[in-house]
């Protein structure tokens, strides 16, 4: 299951970040690490981006990036 | 009269340029979206007879070598060797911001931390123990509100004091090699150290030792920082080592 499969309002926990290079590094720099709790806030009206709440701050990323983050539902 | 070079670093939208303007009286362009400062900008002020030159670095979440901004910021810190780094931290977003703080601290350059946007943080009911934070980081921590020009004098004071204190010590780099007192986060000023756990430290510590024993490398780069970057397989760090070996 990936971060992209979770519905707005639900929470999950990151299991793995399966992204290479700059994108994976950037997500990790921003706190997308295994064990981190993430809440899905909402989707943008025109699909991208999707808004998350983690570590006390809000961040918007693209759906295809969210697909690279493996999670488990809480 | 001396000229003290201070690098202003921090994550995007943490208020680096606002603090830069507050300290120097400049009118650097500031907007309420991240990524406004792409190149480094320079300004200065006089304080107690010394001239302090501030270099406003681009905002970065980290100090890898993946993006242009990160390379600009990192190259400046590594090669220009500023006397002090002023790290602007968004107090409302401490956890994410401290990641960069740790990396700056690991580079071994004397550090001053500005907890910016403290008014917003307090408005959200957040309480930050600046004394404890200062103790853990081994750096002076100053609360600021850049937008309302609060905390400027204290910052100028902290920068000058940090500069002077460092002059009394040996300065660049961390010499201690994994004695028991250094495990976890060291509390002594200027010897900050993150314990990455047994699994990683068993690789890191021998690597750090080897790097610090190489006179050419240890004269140029902080061994601990370089060891961490090499373990991350950072291409730029590998290049730095190769270049030193060839010279």
Sheet with the most strands, sense and barrel status of chain A: 5 strands, antiparallel
The rough form of chain A would be described as globular
Structural class of chain B: alpha/beta
Q: How many domains of chain B? A: 2
- Largest sheet properties of chain B: 6 strands, mixed
CATH superfamily of the largest domain in chain B: P-loop containing nucleotide triphosphate hydrolases
Structural class assignment of chain A: alpha+beta
The top-level CATH class of the largest domain in chain B is: Alpha Beta
The total strand number of chain B stands at 6
Pick out the low-confidence regions of chain A. none
Mean pLDDT of chain B: 86
Of all chain pairs, the largest interface belongs to: A-B, 10 and 11 residues
| Number of discrete helical segments of chain A | 2
Looking at CATH, the homologous superfamily of chain A is Ferrous iron transport protein A (FeoA)
How far apart are the termini of chain A? 12 Å
Series of H and E elements of chain A = EHEEEHE
Record the strand order, biggest sheet of chain B. 2-3-1-4-5-6
The CATH topology annotation of the largest domain in chain B reads as Rossmann fold
Features:
heterodimer; A: alpha+beta; SH3 type barrels; five-stranded antiparallel β-sheet; 2 helices; 45% strand; globular; B: 247 residues; 2 domains; six-stranded mixed β-sheet; 10 helices
Structure in words:
The complex is a heterodimer of chains A (74) and B (247). By secondary structure, chain A is an alpha+beta fold. Chain A has one domain (3-73): Ferrous iron transport protein A (FeoA) (SH3 type barrels). Chain A has helices spanning 21-29, 63-66; strands at 11-17, 37-44, 47-54, 57-61, 69-73. Chain A has a five-stranded antiparallel beta sheet. The radius of gyration of chain A is 11 Å and the shape is globular. Chain B has 247 residues and is α/β, with parallel strands linked by helices. Chain B has a six-stranded mixed beta sheet, sandwiched between helices. In chain B, a hairpin with a 2-residue loop joins strand 2 and strand 3. In chain B, helix 7 (198-213) packs across helix 9 (223-231). The relative contact order of chain B is 0.12. The interface between A and B is small, with 10 and 11 residues.
């Amino acid at each position: 299951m990936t971060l992209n499969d979770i519905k707005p309002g639900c929470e999950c926990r990151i299991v793995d970040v399966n992204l290479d290079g700059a994108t994976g590094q950037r997500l990790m720099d921003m706190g997308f690490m295994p064990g981190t709790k993430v809440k899905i806030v909402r989707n943008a009206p025109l699909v991208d981006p999707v808004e998350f709440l983690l570590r006390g701050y809000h961040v918007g990323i693209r759906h295809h990036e969210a697909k690279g983050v493996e999670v488990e539902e809480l | 009269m001396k000229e003290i070079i201070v690098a202003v670093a921090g994550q995007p939208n943490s208020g680096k340029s606002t603090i830069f303007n507050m300290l120097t009286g400049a009118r650097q362009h500031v907007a309420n979206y991240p990524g406004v400062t792409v190149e480094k900008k320079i300004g200065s002020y006089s304080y107690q007879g010394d001239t302090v030159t501030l270099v406003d670095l681009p905002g970065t979440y980290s100090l890898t070598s993946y993006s242009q901004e990160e390379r600009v910021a990192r190259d400046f810190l590594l090669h220009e060797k500023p006397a002090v780094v002023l790290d602007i931290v968004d107090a409302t977003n401490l956890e994410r911001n401290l990641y960069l703080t740790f990396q700056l601290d690991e580079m071994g350059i004397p550090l001053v931390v500005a907890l910016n946007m403290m008014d917003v943080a307090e408005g959200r009911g957040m309480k930050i123990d600046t004394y404890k934070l200062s103790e853990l980081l081994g750096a002076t921590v100053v609360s600021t509100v850049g937008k309302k020009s609060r905390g400027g004098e204290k910052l100028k004071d902290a920068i000058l004091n940090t500069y002077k204190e460092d002059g009394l010590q040996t300065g660049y780099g961390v010499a201690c090699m994994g004695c028991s007192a250094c495990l976890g986060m060291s509390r002594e000023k200027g010897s900050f150290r993150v314990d990455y756990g047994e699994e990683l430290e068993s690789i890191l510590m021998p690597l750090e030792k080897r790097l610090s024993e190489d006179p050419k490398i240890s004269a140029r780069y902080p061994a601990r920082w370089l060891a961490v970057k090499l373990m991350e397989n950072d291409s730029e760090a590998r290049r730095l080592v190769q270049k030193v070996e060839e010279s």
